[in-house]
Write a structure and sequence with these properties.
alpha+beta; four-stranded antiparallel β-sheet; 118 residues; 2 helices; 25% strand; binds zinc ion
């Protein structure tokens, strides 16, 4: 008698677990949808803040990809360091450049001057 009751009890727990897992899965699905809905808004905000439309072209401070040193015209020259820095015209070392000229390293300070002068 006892053993049969225990067996039924286990079965009941398994059913509960199954329902609980289903609930978790549904919750996770909802979270996924939330992320998908949120991402386009974030992308739009970032673009608006990072770039300034000034006359002929768009200027924006850009980070070089990891493990690159300079732009070779059609591809990046590879570097050993993940955050390899190259000298800016002012002497600062940086990993940034303006969107208008990948080939020229430009630190944030020079970028601020650059967008005022174009
Ligand atoms: Zn520029
Ligand atoms: Zn500079």
């Amino acid at each position: 008698m006892n053993s049969r009751a225990r067996a039924r009890g286990v079965e009941g727990d398994a059913g509960l677990d199954f329902r609980r897992n289903l609930a978790v899965q549904m919750l996770e699905n909802n979270l996924d949808h939330g992320l998908i809905n949120r991402s386009p808004i974030r992308a739009k905000n970032t673009r608006a803040r990072a770039s300034i439309s000034a006359g002929e072209g768009t200027h924006a401070i850009m980070n070089r990809p990891y493990f690159t040193s300079k732009w070779l015209g059609s591809s990046w020259k590879k570097a050993k360091d993940k955050y390899h820095k190259t000298p800016c015209a002012c002497g600062n070392h940086c990993r940034t450049h303006c969107l208008c000229d990948k080939g020229k390293a430009m630190c944030v300070e020079c970028f601020n001057i650059h967008i005022l002068n174009v």
